[in-house]
Amino acid sequence: MPSTSCPPKQAFSKRTNPASHGMLLTFPPRSPDFPITSIIPPMDRLHTLHFLWLFSAAPVLAGYPIWWSLALGQQYSSFGSQPILCGSIPGLVPKQVRFCRNYLEIMPSVAEGVKLGIQECQHQFRGRRWNCTTIHDSLAIFGPVLDKATRESAFVHAIASAGVAFAVTRSCAEGSTTICGCDSHHKGSSGEGWKWGGCSEDADYGVVVSREFADARENRLDARSAMNRHNNEAGRATILDHMHLKCKCHGLSGSCEVKTCWWSQPDFRAIGDHLKDKYDSASEMSVEKHRESRGWVETLRAKYSLFKPPTERDLVYYETSPNFCEPNPETGSFGTQGRSCNVTSHGIDGCDLLCCGRGHNTRTEKRKEKCHCVFHWCCYVSCQECVRIYDVHTCK
Ligand SMILES: *[C@@H]1O[C@H](CO)[C@@H](O)[C@H](O)[C@H]1NC(C)=O
Ligand SMILES: *[C@@H]1O[C@H](CO)[C@@H](O)[C@H](O)[C@H]1NC(C)=O
After folding, report:
1. 340 within ligand 2 shell (Cβ under 6 A)
2. Which of 340, 343, 344 is the pocket-test mutation for ligand 2 (most atoms within 8 Å of CB)?
3. Which atom of ligand 1 is closest in space to residue 133's alpha carbon?
4. Using CA atoms, how far apart are residues 230 and 241, in angstroms rounded to an integer?
5. Does 26 score more than 70 pLDDT?
6. pLDDT in tens, 27-52
7. Which-ligand-closest: CA of 121?
8. pLDDT confidence of residue 361
9. Do 244 and 238 touch, CB atoms closer than 8 A?
10. Span 95-100, mean pLDDT?
11. d(C-alpha 385, C-alpha 383), whole Å
12. Which residues are listed as membrane-spanning (predicted)?
């Protein structure tokens, strides 16, 4: 009989098993793409054409992955019920197209993961001058902002690759695909008075998928590729570092005769919070060129020797960000005019900093709210509607 009282979640850091990193390659390849004719419903064909049209009419040369647009493409929200045309997903390099065809089943989670990363980015940056805005009618979904090797680029790469690892791991544990599942290394007694049970999330698998897919285009010998690889890996490491044990008690109520535990991923918010700290403390690098047998290779070295050099868990960048105060189509800055700011805050969300010293306008806004709510026995609540007046401050 399950009991009602459970000990608090225990936090351990999960040691990862490097030997398992090769496992992705051992799965049998999955079925190839569906043939383009006949199966595609007319709507899907329309969407695909629209995508292709965007792609050909305005060739996009973004410094970041075009396939991130998977996160915004309406047609990918119902993956699974519709055929996925790997060859028509914009911005995939050949290795990614092969991956897509071989692991078609996990493509919905890849798209979901990028979406999760972008949503978290928008949450973390909501009160800042650059707030992670995406542009829906372009395949370069962040505009030119991320073309430069800035802190913002570092953060988005890290959170997107973490999102992919996270979403793939989650969907494996939920049993939504046949090619992956729970981490089966943990069985029987733990030797610490409890038993392995439930479904341990196999974050190593998600990390391998993210590494294979998200890093596939980062194989150039230049500095930007090195930076993207580093930040992608830092994002994924955050997931592994935040794995924790969840436990449940079984037995007569109140007792904990049998305790079962399993590895679980953190809330994605914890990943976002952690990477936001890494954004604030990101390391500025300088680019060095070496002549090697494969040709000229660019590597990154910490710019300031006074500071501690970055570890593999830190974010790195080598170009300074614009200040994002004024709109500028070249840098992709939208400016902060019209943004709402917080008059009492002295931080970056405060009117002084957010409005870049231009000052702000104040207007009042009436909002209807529920109030004087009364609970009636039994069981409903009745409320009145009140109008409350708020001051809204927006940047000049
Ligand atoms: C983000 O910034 C854009 C451009 O300045 C603005 O239109 C949008 O409302 C902002 N979003 C939030 C959540 O503040
Ligand atoms: C504005 O900033 C103050 C001080 O930092 C904070 O306590 C308050 O919650 C903020 N208000 C909003 C609406 O974010």
Report:
1. no
2. 344
3. 1
4. 16
5. no
6. 333 333 322 222 333 333 334 434 44
7. 1
8. 96
9. no
10. 93
11. 7
12. 51-70
User: How far is Cα 256 from Cα 249, in angstroms, rounded to an integer?
Assistant: 5
Name the closest ligand to CA 324: 1
| pTM tops 0.90, yes or no | no
Alpha-carbon span 39 to 164, nearest angstrom: 28
Encode pLDDT of 353-376 as tens digits.
999 999 999 999 999 999 999 999
User: 16: Cβ–Cβ under 8 A, 6 or more apart, which residues?
Assistant: 203, 204, 207, 240
> Which tokens sit at 238?
């955050």
Which of the 8 DSSP states describes residue 342?
Answer: B
Contact 230, 214 (CB under 8 A): no
Indicate if ligand 2 lies below 6 Å from the C-beta of 342.
Answer: yes
The β-bridge relationship of strands 380-395 and 360-376 is antiparallel
Measured CA to CA in angstroms, residue 9 lies from 86, 190, 248, 273 at distances of: 41, 16, 9, 20
Ligand nearest, relative to CA of residue 353: 2
* 133 within ligand 1 shell (Cβ under 6 A): yes
Find out whether the beta carbon of 334 lies less than 6 Å from any atom of ligand 1: yes
Is the CB–ligand 1 distance for residue 225 below 6 Å?
A: no
Task: Report all structural domains of the chain as residue ranges with CATH numbers, in order of start.
Answer: 2-317 (no CATH), 336-395 (3.30.2460.20)
